């Protein structure tokens, strides 16, 4: 079977091999329209920031991260202007426990190099040869990659959906639940309860996570921390850095430096 471009994957009855990731035969570009695959997708950004959206939420992957997208899950993929994607497509049957929802995974230096090396193999590598052995090591590394908290829940409840879409469009908005309660004709207490029920987070924590996730593409492109903090609605750089460290375990400067390592 000859290599196929990414847009033709949906027409395949099966992958050329249980793991498919031949770099030259995949366009490896962001597909911003809703689509799904009958295989697991491991979408890794070697540069830029990936933003994968499903009905459940947004999954954000800067470099050294990847998004695990289960078979059959409808998703959209967006990326910053300089995003470089290396995707793997995996037959669910080759993994001992392929279940679970979308998630963001840490990509170790070893896993990153394995993904890049695997992409240089022919699409129909010899399964009993060096290519097959590399694929087996790659699967082990992917299966054991740590799960990270780079996910923003997106509730389906109509009132919350309206609020969340407004904050996604303007992360620096100062509106609180009281203002939204007046607009929507309900109580602030009702909205607060709905946020916890449908996202697992308080409104304050949800908005904080949105702002921090919104900061990642700007930081990745080299914008000043001060400008990023203001664009994301923080009153001071120190407050932004403190929130960033609390959520990501590193300052913005350390986070970006780690992504380029």
Structural summary, described in words:
The protein has helices at residues 109-119, 130-143, 158-169, 177-184, 188-199, 203-220, 225-231, 237-248, 252-259; strands spanning 19-20, 40-47, 50-53, 57-61, 65-69, 76-79, 84-90, 103-106, 147-148, 151-153. 39% of the residues lie in helices and 17% in strands. The strands form 2 sheets. The protein has a 6-stranded antiparallel beta sheet. It has a 4-stranded antiparallel beta sheet with strand order 6-3-4-10, covered by helices on one side. The protein is an alpha+beta fold and 261 residues long. The protein contains 9 helices and 10 strands.
Supply the key terms.
four-stranded antiparallel sheet; 261 residues; globular; disordered N terminus; 39% helix; 9 helices; alpha+beta
In short:
This protein has helices spanning 109-119, 130-143, 158-169, 177-184, 188-199, 203-220, 225-231, 237-248, 252-259, and strands spanning 19-20, 40-47, 50-53, 57-61, 65-69, 76-79, 84-90, 103-106, 147-148, 151-153. The protein has 261 residues and is an alpha+beta fold.
